[in-house]
Amino acid sequence: MKFLLLFPDGIGLRNFVLTQFLSLLTEKGDVFLWHALPEQTVQPHIHDFAGKVCWHALPHHREGQMSFLFRRAKLLAQLYGQGEPGTDVVLKQTAGKGKGRYRLRNHLAEIFGRILSHSHSQILWLDHAHAWMVERQPYFKQYLSFLEKEMPDIVFCSHQRSEFAVPAMLAARKLGIPTATFVYSWDNLPKGRMAVHADYFLVWSEHMRDEMLQYYPDVTPGRIFIVGTPQFEHYFNQDIIEPREIFLRCYGLDPSRPVICFSGDDIATSPHDPDYLEDLAIALEQFPTRTRPQILFRRTPTDVSGRYEAVLKRRPEIVSVEPAWINLADNDWTKVIPTDEDVRLLVNIVRHCDFVVNVGSTMALDFAINHKPSIYLAYNPSSWRTEDGWNIEDVYRYPHFNHIGQFNPVYWAKSKDELPALIRECMKNPGNMESRRQAWVEFLVQTPLDRASERCAKVLFEIAGCQHGEERISNNAHLLFVR
User: Fold this and answer.
1) Which of 472, 413, 403 is nearest to 443 (CA)?
2) Strand order in the sheet with 224-226
3) Could you tell me which of 84, 85, 66 has the C-alpha nearest to residue 74?
4) Smallest Cα–Cα separation from 7: which of 42, 51, 40, 44?
5) 365-418 pLDDT, tens digit each
6) pTM of the model
């Protein structure tokens, strides 16, 4: 068998290179990795898989104006057509920006999206128009040529969001090569983030499968495989867990006192994170010095801004532990590259912090997997002004939070005055909401969590096997990998 893995940017590395997934594939056949990664970030992985994986750079291309127009129009049409609570917040966040011709093309995409949002057939027409435009770009022939030469049994894309993956996936479809893609995050489907369409989709859970069927009624159940996500496997790797005392002392933290992780969000989601961080530090002043909890601050890997500098200077007791990602651009997930070092760092942060505080972050899920509480900040800070164009209420109205009231897995700080009491509760009764947290985890992610790579690999074996005359995938094939 021949597997071609498509990495349009670096974010898929954490799931499919820094886990056992790639090793599992190399046991079954030849693996080619087609990527858009900078050379310096690829070299360590080439060394790790020497002789087992062939690495090829994707052809460089610039998306044409018309290709952009139709890609963005279909995203907006999907959102306009959903009519789901919270979709208005997503539309507000995705509002087009720019000047001159960029402003014009965003405006045209919005018009097309609104007009063609009244039925799924109209949205499909936009998708076909987008594909038609891409296939007529000069760069498309390079993608066809590469695939015609290699002719893999399957092309697997590390996530469905990137426009840089579109020509490769369309070229595979044109040549009759089966394609599959992984839905990268719990919020991607409600936010209309589907630049890449494929023959098969790998999703986190039954809930995500139901979302796929709801938002994309042209996708039949037999094309969806429930696999979980490999990103949480690292928490079960005992080899990378350091002793608490060694890890905390390395960062100047006292192992005898509790440690709170404050995890930052991107600037768009939570522009007032520095204020929240200081509110947490102020709340801790109510605790006796000898037993006072400490703050370990981890910013989101995309945020290389200086917005936290002032609060970190005023509050030297806050320990900032920087993510060990290679960051090529500010606040852009497509320009950050995860590393083995950061995997180890994150695992130990979650392992040795007592609970996490943030604004609606998936880090609450990471801590729940490790049987630890979370506090979601749900108030506008004192620096907030109506004219900011941002409101904390909007954050929790995103569609991917619509289910959270079903589980109530986190504590909610409705004002900064509530923080001291919630902190005490998390420290005194860390297992108080354990059953709710685990129910939430099982709703969002297929278990067992530490076998997601195996499930992903099995799906690709199954699809690729069809090209060798093996038994065809049935409409119920996804059930083979649910349990």
Assistant:
1) 403
2) 53-57, 30-35, 2-7, 154-157, 179-182, 200-203, 224-226
3) 66
4) 42
5) 999 999 999 999 999 999 998 888 899 999 999 999 999 999 999 999 999 999
6) 0.92
